[in-house]
Amino acid sequence: MEAMLKKLRLPRIREIYEQRIDRAAEEDWSYRKFLKHLLEEEVTNRHQNRLQRRKKKAGFPFEKTLNQFEFNFRPKLKKRVFQTYTEPRFVTEGKDLILIGPPGTGKTHLSVGIGLAQIKNDFKVTFKNVQSLAGELQGAVRKDEKDELLASLLKVDLLILDEFGYLPLKEELGPFLYELIAGRYEEKSTIITSNKSLNEWGKTLRDNSLAQALIDRLIHHGEVYYLEGDSYRMQGKENLLHGEDSQKQGQNHIKDSTGEEKDVESIKD
Q1: Does position 232 have pLDDT exceeding 60, yes or no?
Q2: Strand pairing category for 125-129 and 96-100
Q3: I need a surface site. Which of 12, 25, 50, 257 has the fewest CB within 10 A?
Q4: Which range marks the domain in which residue 222 is found?
């Protein structure tokens, strides 16, 4: 039995069938119910494995869902609106999304949350940092290597381009991005996060006409959100921005066994 299940590539059934035989006998399952249970276990296991492979292949920098995003910290962003971007039709209709704002406002978290949800919807997702993409493009010396890179990004259902405009871009990246966005237009979904407003994209790409062509295609069937507010990463560390040393601030105070805070100098006395 083990050898046949292995040959048929049914790993989950091979793992559980003996236990299920005992359970079926105890609960007096019919042959139909027993077979259906085994097949359902195998199908579920394959689906979960496929999701794990796709998550790994997507290249996310971390795994955070949309439900983990602190929308109360960004009250202008409506959770129910962003939940619509996790629905299958966002991808099937070739919708796009641009998230703009300073560092630490949650742009990457939102894009990853949407990407993870779309993987669960059985779509293929790729996450690319724009600087990393520029490095890959620079390393693709031959034309066929560049064509292969472009083709791999054109075919994914949802492409996430993160941190567009954070660092100066190589001149060759602009035309490549245009070809990429134009090729995905109305066919595949794209999410871009950036710290640059749309009217600065021309400077970032060193070509105003090229930037306008990109923006036209992205917003035709897409939405743009400007994220405002303080950085998540700086919560509780605002004093550091003003040159204050938190270690120095805290070194003159300790807590006694009762939890009461006392000045170090007074304890010495």
Answers
A1: no
A2: unpaired
A3: 257
A4: 66-226
Is 267 a domain residue?
Answer: no
> Helix, strand, coil % (nearest 5) of the chain?
60, 15, 30
Burial zone of 133 (CB within 10 Å; 0-12 exposed, 13-18 middle, 19+ buried): buried
Q: What is the pTM of this model?
A: 0.79
Q: Is 99 helix (H, G, I), strand (E, B) or coil?
A: strand
Nearest to 203 by CA among 171, 235, 245, 237: 171
Instruction: Tell the residue number behind the tokens 């790994």, with chain if given.
Output: 56
Kindly state the DSSP code that residue 124 receives in the 8-state scheme.
Answer: -
Q: Tens digits of per-residue pLDDT, 97-136?
A: 999 999 989 999 999 999 999 999 999 999 999 999 999 9
Q: Does residue 259 lie within any of the structural domains?
A: no
Residues 71 and 172 in one domain: yes
One domain for residues 149 and 196:
yes
**Shared domain check, 78 and 121:** yes
Instruction: Find where tokens 């999701």 sit.
Output: 51
- Residue 183 falls inside a structural domain: yes
Closest among 153, 158, 159 to 137, alpha carbons compared: 153
Phi, psi at 240, each rounded to 5°: -65, -30
